[in-house]
Write a structure and sequence with these properties.
Layout lengths: L7 H12 L11 H29 L2 E5 L8 E5 L1 H21 L10 H17 L3 H19 L5 H32 L4 H8 L4 H22 L8 H7 L2 H6 L3 H15 L13 H20 L4 H21 L3 H30 L17 H16 L5 H12 L6 H28 L15 H11 L1 H7 L1 H16 L1 H7 L8
Antiparallel strand pairs: 1-2
């Protein structure tokens, strides 16, 4: 029975999303029914993901062959500790976003909740698939859903950002297909584990072709992860999206980062012969520059949403630094930081929306505007989020950056890692201090207070769920880091993956 757990994260949002397109959930007046269904689906996904994670920890990785086609053929799902952790993280994020949307965002379009489920379907699928072609399929599923979610609610700004986003991702999808065709033509397989076996057996001429295909994949994943110089689409896109959508998109860049971790550790890892660590010379300087550009963007941001979007770029650069160190310890540190950065930046998008609702036409822009109605409540939320994302104790950001810094001890890049991350943290504190000072202290006379309604209980529930994760991540930091250490060790253990796939006999 437990083996079928691997496909449940895909089936639940797929079936649930389809059912919400049909009566009794269809129709603009049926939003309450869609809310109940969506909440039930999210709770089911969380329960399933936690059970899946516990099963993987207890019994080891799960291989699921759809249609009983054995590897390397057919659709193969593979859930290890890393995949299970990311599925759980996505489910928690999805629940927070769903709760926040109940405040009214979901009523701006009757397909909001089904699209959220299809978006989650694509993200879950990307995390659990062990086949490059099916990874492409799940990429397209989540991209199609994201196109529609981005323009949810309408508006010129959203439409313009969406056109930009669609064009770039269509180019990325085309490059993905070219890369897959190249790799399949040489290796004869798209199964990640099987390809890792065949890479080291290639002739010199074929290695050059495979290197070209692997480099194209890096462009695709780099575009998805918003790695420099493929980051320019992210700030405007995330700033234009509605708050719940922008918060959900916080996991989207992590899909690209995950693919880099998975593909270039398993396929082009230490066992790949001449192609071992082929992207290392590129990712190392680009990760540093990604942090620098994201930090500069944060300092120059005109509003809180754009600031949060640039902080997403900074987090991507930090994760890529962890990858570029090429050790299980650095990978484990990066995984802890991934959990923290996803939840906290998502919460920051929600806080920016609540602030904007109480500042009139000024929204969340850093300009003098009328005083915020619930200044104390929103101020506390902002301060906690700012301290967490900047890496100040006692929140998870401090512990996350600390373990990344510790993982660099003994490496040749320690000076660069420490300098860039610490300076970026200082600049982030400055940017957030400027934002908080402007939003909360620089206002028109006190009698001109915002006349808007206070924040909804649903908004607070969604924000508390995501933001409350930061102190919990710090409180249970030792246990979580122990888990990420185990997940990182499993990711780097290629032989174990091959045994689970029953490919011990080598390339077939």
């Amino acid at each position: 029975m437990t083996v079928h757990l691997a496909i449940l994260p895909i089936l639940i949002p797929l079936v649930g999303g389809l059912l919400m397109l049909l009566p009794p959930f269809a129709g603009p007046e049926r939003y309450q029914a869609r809310r109940v269904a969506s909440l039930c689906l999210m709770l089911a996904q969380i329960v399933c993901s936690i059970f899946l994670m516990a099963t993987v920890v207890q019994n080891g990785a799960i291989m699921y062959a759809v249609g009983d086609w054995k590897p390397p053929f057919g659709i193969i799902l593979y859930v290890d500790q890393l995949s299970a952790m990311l599925v759980t993280l996505t489910a928690v994020l999805g629940l927070g976003v769903t709760l926040y949307s109940f405040a009214g965002t979901d009523r701006e379009g009757k397909y909001f909740h089904p699209l959220i489920q299809f978006q989650l379907l694509g993200i879950y699928g990307a995390f659990v698939t062990n086949d490059l072609f099916n990874l492409f399929v799940f990429f397209e599923v989540l991209l199609i859903a994201s196109y529609t979610l981005l323009i949810h609610g309408g508006g010129k700004q959203k439409t313009a950002a969406n056109v930009h986003y669609v064009i770039l991702n269509l180019i990325g999808s085309s490059l993905f297909l070219f890369a897959l065709g190249t790799l399949y033509g040489i290796t004869g397989t798209l199964n990640i584990a099987d390809m890792s076996l065949r890479i080291g057996q290639l002739s010199a001429s074929n290695q050059l072709i495979v290197q070209a295909g692997g480099s194209l994949l890096l462009v695709v994943f780099g575009l998805k992860a918003a790695m420099l110089p493929l980051h320019f689409w992210l700030p405007k896109t995330y700033a234009a999206a509605s708050a719940p959508v922008a918060a959900l998109f916080a996991i989207m860049t992590k899909v690209g980062v995950y693919c880099i971790f998975r593909v270039y550790t398993v396929i082009f890892g230490e066992q790949a012969g001449e192609l071992a660590n082929m992207v290392q010379p590129w990712i190392w300087p680009l990760s540093i520059l990604t942090i620098v550009v994201g930090t500069v963007g944060a300092l120059a941001s005109p509003n809180l949403r754009t600031l949060a979007a640039n902080l997403v770029i900074v987090s991507v650069g930090t994760l890529l630094i962890a990858f570029s160190l090429r050790t299980p310890e650095a990978t484990a540190a990066g995984l802890y930081y991934l959990i923290h950065s996803t939840l906290v930046t998502a919460a920051l998008f929600l806080i920016a929306d609540m602030l904007g609702q109480q500042r009139g036409k000024a929204l969340d822009y850093f300009v003098i505007a009328r005083k915020i109605k619930q200044q104390s409540l929103l101020g506390i939320l902002f301060v906690v989020a700012a301290m967490a994302v900047a890496g100040l104790p006692p929140f998870s950001g401090f512990l996350g950056k600390l373990v990344v810094l510790q993982s660099a001890v003994g490496s040749d890049q320690i000076v660069w890692v420490w300098s860039v991350i610490l300076l970026s943290s200082l600049m982030t504190i400055i940017a957030l201090s400027r934002a908080g000072t402007t939003l909360f202290w620089r206002s028109t006379p006190s009698h001109d207070v915002a006349e808007s309604d206070g924040v909804s209980k649903w908004q607070l529930c969604g924000t508390f769920l995501l933001l409350g994760a930061s102190p919990l991540l710090a409180l249970f930091g030792a246990s979580i880091i122990e888990y990420t250490n185990s997940a990182a060790a499993q990711l780097h253990d290629i032989e174990s993956l091959i045994r689970v796939m029953n490919l011990e006999g080598g390339a077939q």
